[in-house]
Specification:
Layout: H1 19-35, E1 44-48, E2 63-66, H2 72-82, E3 87-93, H3 94-100, H4 102-111, E4 116-121, H5 156-163, E5 167-172, H6 176-188, E6 193-198, H7 208-214, E7 215-217, H8 227-234, E8 242-249, H9 255-260
Parallel strand pairs: 1-2, 1-3, 3-4, 4-6, 5-6, 7-8
Antiparallel strand pairs: 5-8
Helix pairs in contact: 1-6, 3-4, 4-5, 5-8
The structure holds iron/sulfur cluster.
């Protein structure tokens, strides 16, 4: 296989879509791990759900599996149970994992399945042209909420730490280097690795200017194995700033280890 993991499939995301930055980060992350002998390409399987993000499975030259809407996590964990030697990564969207597949997300985190989930979080249903979802901000105006959403958004990082995920991180698609490093750290972690990737949809909810000013990278003492401190960080509201980085990283027996005993 080509080292750069490219395919010949035409990319059909909107021109300039930030999904492309996630694609580049992933190719770089995995390419370096394979070149460095830390990952076997034949043992890597990438899963995708339904949504704009899901097209990524056509653009990476590795084993891939495209699931039903919101069901990629059950497919990922099933594959890992059947063959623990596999390295499993999953690409999902906020609609796919925080709405359609929320129950699978919570239970995979609770079980500490040894899989890696990267959520392309654009805070709306984009493929269906812009409806509000579980993480849309209050007041969001879209096709299904023309007068503005009246609900507070879900905090998925808080949910994941509470549910039992052992690696919890957030990054920004526009920072390809930062996203690459977080992906590599997630893959290196044994247990359920969850990464929320802020991925502005430039067609239906272009929030790039907002995030450019709002995001910042956290420093020591993170990542922490102190669940309470991690929760404090992912729920902090200081000047509207949004922290990026690895918040929580702890080692626990994985579901597959317990299963194969
Ligand atoms: Fe990207 Fe939004 Fe276009 Fe989907 S609709 S491809 S998320 S810019």
């Amino acid at each position: 296989m080509e080292k750069n993991l490219q395919t010949t499939t035409k990319i059909t995301w909107c021109p300039g879509c930030t999904n492309s930055q996630i694609l580049v980060a992933f190719r770089q992350a995995v390419g370096e791990l394979i070149e460095g002998g830390k990952l076997k390409q034949e043992n890597l399987v990438a899963f995708a759900g339904i949504g704009c993000h899901g097209k990524i499975s056509d653009y990476i030259n590795v084993n891939t599996f495209t699931s039903l809407h919101g069901r990629l996590i059950s497919a990922m964990t099933g594959a890992k149970c059947a063959n623990p030697k596999l390295t499993i990564v999953g690409f999902s969207g906020d609609g796919d994992s925080y709405d359609e597949g929320l129950e699978h997300l919570v239970h995979a985190a609770k079980r500490n399945s040894d899989v890696n989930l990267f959520v392309h979080d654009n805070r709306l249903f984009a493929l269906t042209t812009g409806q509000f979802d579980a993480v849309s901000p209050k007041g969001f105006k879209g096709k299904s909420t023309p007068f503005g959403s009246i609900e507070e958004p879900l905090n998925p990082l808080l949910l994941m730490i509470s549910a039992g995920a052992t690696f919890v991180a957030r990054t920004y698609a526009g920072d390809i280097e930062g996203t690459k490093k977080i992906m590599q750290a997630a893959i290196a972690h044994k247990g359920f690795s969850y990464v929320d990737i802020i991925q502005p949809c430039i067609t239906f909810f272009d929030s790039r200017d907002y995030f450019k000013d709002a995001i910042y990278w956290i420093k020591d003492p993170f990542p922490t194995d102190d669940q309470r401190r991690a929760i404090e960080k992912v729920t902090e509201k200081i000047g509207g700033k949004i922290p990026l980085g690895i918040f929580y990283n702890v080692q626990k027996p994985t579901f597959e280890e317990e299963l194969w005993k």
